[in-house]
Amino acid sequence: MHETPSMTRSRENGWKQKPSVIVTLGIGHDTQAEEALVKVLPEGSYFYGADPIHEVNENLFTKFGSYFPFAVGAKSQVATASVLIN
């Protein structure tokens, strides 16, 4: 991938100095990536996660961020969703 000057500048300076907003769609009972980001991102960064299966995901994600019990689809609507369990 060819990097533009703004990409290089952002990676070298911005992300370590300014708080970030991280959005996770589909937590999937795994928050290892987000937990690693908590350790390296500046204090004040925000973490938001959405997953329709709240039993495990809510407990995992609320340790460091805000959890929303929603599925994400192609259009806005309220509907019954089927989720496959592993």
What's this, in brief?
The chain is α/β, with parallel strands linked by helices and about 90 residues long. It has helices spanning about 5-15, 30-40, 55-60, and strands at about 20-25, 45-50, 65-70. The protein has one domain (about 20-85).
The chain-level structural class is: alpha/beta
Task: Outline the low-pLDDT stretches.
Answer: none
Order of helices and strands: HEHEHE
Q: What number of domains?
A: 1
The rounded distance between the terminal residues' Cα atoms is 35 Å
Share of residues in helices: 25-40%
Q: What overall geometry do the principal axes of the alpha carbons give?
A: elongated
- What's the average pLDDT? 85
Major sheet: 3 strands, parallel
- Which strand-content bin applies to the residues? 15-25%
Helix count, DSSP H or I runs of 4 or more residues: 3
Write the layout of secondary structure elements.
Blueprint: H1 5-17, E1 21-25, H2 32-40, E2 46-50, H3 54-61, E3 66-68
Parallel strand pairs: 1-2, 2-3
Molecular structure report:
Helix 3 (about 55-60) links the parallel strand 2 and strand 3. This protein has three helices and three strands, in the order αβαβαβ. The radius of gyration is 16 Å and the shape is elongated. Helices cover about 35% and strands about 15% of the residues. The protein has one domain (about 20-85).
